[in-house]
């Protein structure tokens, strides 16, 4: 590679917490319930609206979400139905920012002034202008229900609220959060008997609200799993909750009174998640409007999210130069390399994903993402933050001429990377743990790659064997096939 190309160290400045390696595990563990009900326990990056939006990259999905909310809030304030969908389903089959999106919706609704650059999030100019005219006086009633935070026998969410009733159901809790004691009184009998209210009852509740409302429901499949064990007459609490969600979805469709954001993701409760998704699909079949599906983080936005969170600044002018030189290099060896890396599309991909190599983004966003327990956005942020720290913390000077962050920078010598690898190994039939220690890296003696590198590093070369072995290890996790490197 041409030496005159600016290196990572010349074109990129990581955030201080990434440089120091002190980026806390809690910084990635966003919980909607903590932000809403225990804000003192939530990390500032999630709990503080100003910090949250300053660290948040405006993906297409997030723009779509907040634009729709702004449109409905403006419609409610104007007294004219906007026609925008009242039900938003967060499409997150294998992860991708659903909790982050719900926290964004919550902060946007409760603290619209925290969003300094509205044009970044509300791309429709007409909607943005309408929202600008109302946001200073806007008051949104919010109600939050996180399935993993409550139990099927105790739905009370805010333990600090001494006046809050000891609700037993999702509908009782949402009624209280939306409309206080007056709202709960309308549903108290339904709550006590654990019988779901109908659509007309929910519309009556909505009609008591002078302000627009927002209902956020997360981890609903987990709640269904618990509720299935609670008998209610000839049915179960899960059946009643299913009926309530149906009525809630219908009640949100014909006015801007209350917007419902529902997260249905494939989890350990996949069967229950499928039940809820079928409920939404059934609603589509009978409704003139379908629910508005939002994918919080698209595959091609993973690099942008990583760059925004991990780097304080990146010189975009360098991206084109690096992409051009890399492709020229690949074309000199086109007979030995895959066809795709010599095509113009790959050069464009190199520029778009800078300072990350496209193969790293593909690995995290499309390949490992298919494995159980790997959450794309959160998992990628954790791993790549450690990779960036490793590059900048290099005491031996082997990274001096680095231009891109690569898959081999997620090295098993890092404790967090190793623990992630161990979790991923559990879902692979092959014994990758033994292969990794034998071939790539071990603290107990030396692995094959470590021995091989002794032939190169004393002459000032990078640890080529370790780079190759680590890359093969990550690809082996995806394919489930061990490729020996020793």
Automatic annotation (TrEMBL):
InterPro entries per the UniProt record, alphabetical: DUF499
Protein's name in the database: ATP-binding protein
Organism per entry: Halolamina pelagica
Domain of life: Archaea
Pfam family of the protein (one): DUF499
């Amino acid at each position: 590679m041409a030496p005159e190309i600016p290196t990572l160290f010349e074109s990129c400045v990581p955030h201080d917490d990434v440089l120091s390696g002190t980026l806390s595990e809690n910084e990635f563990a966003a919980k909607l319930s903590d932000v809403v009900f225990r804000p003192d326990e939530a990390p500032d990056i999630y709990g503080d609206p100003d910090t949250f939006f300053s660290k948040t990259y405006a993906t297409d999905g997030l723009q779509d979400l907040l634009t729709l909310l702004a449109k409905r809030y403006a419609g409610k304030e104007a007294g004219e139905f906007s026609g925008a969908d009242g039900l938003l389903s967060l499409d997150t089959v294998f992860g991708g920012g659903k909790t982050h999106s719900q926290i964004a919706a919550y902060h946007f609704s409760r603290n619209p002034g925290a969003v300094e650059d509205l044009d970044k999030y509300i791309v429709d100019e007409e909607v943005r202008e309408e929202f600008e005219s109302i946001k200073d006086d806007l008051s949104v009633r919010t109600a939050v229900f996180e399935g993993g935070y409550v139990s099927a026998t105790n739905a009370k969410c805010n333990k600090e609220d001494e006046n809050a009733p000891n609700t037993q159901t999702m509908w009782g809790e949402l009624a209280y959060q939306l409309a206080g004691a007056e709202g709960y009184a309308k549903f108290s009998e339904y709550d006590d008997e654990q019988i779901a209210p109908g659509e007309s009852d929910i519309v009556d509740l909505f009609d008591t609200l002078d302000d627009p409302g927002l209902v956020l429901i997360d981890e609903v499949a987990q709640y269904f799993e618990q509720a299935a064990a609670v008998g209610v007459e000839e049915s179960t609490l899960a059946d009643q909750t299913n009926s309530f969600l149906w009525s809630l979805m219908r009640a949100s469709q014909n006015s801007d009174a209350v917007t419902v954001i529902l997260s249905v993701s494939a989890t350990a409760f996949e069967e229950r998640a499928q039940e809820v998704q079928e409920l939404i699909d059934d609603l589509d079949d009978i409704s003139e409007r379908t629910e508005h599906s939002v994918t919080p983080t698209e595959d091609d936005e993973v690099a942008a999210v990583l760059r925004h969170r991990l780097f304080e600044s990146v010189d975009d002018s360098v991206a084109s130069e690096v992409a051009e030189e890399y492709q020229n290099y690949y074309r000199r060896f086109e007979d030995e390399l895959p066809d795709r890396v010599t095509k113009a599309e790959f050069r464009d991909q190199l520029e778009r994903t800078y300072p990350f190599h496209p193969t790293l983004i593909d690995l995290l966003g499309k390949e490992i993402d298919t494995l159980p327990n790997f959450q794309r956005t959160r998992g990628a942020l954790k791993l790549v933050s450690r990779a960036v720290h490793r590059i900048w913390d290099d005491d031996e000077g082997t990274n001096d001429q680095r231009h891109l962050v690569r898959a081999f920078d997620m090295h098993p010598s890092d404790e967090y990377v190793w623990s992630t690898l161990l979790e991923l190994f559990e879902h692979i039939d092959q014994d990758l743990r033994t292969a990794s220690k034998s071939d790539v890296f071990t603290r107990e003696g030396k692995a094959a790659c470590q021995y091989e590198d002794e032939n190169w590093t004393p002459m000032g070369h990078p640890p080529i064997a370790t780079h190759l072995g680590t890359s093969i290890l990550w690809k082996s996790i995806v394919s489930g096939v061990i490729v020996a490197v020793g």
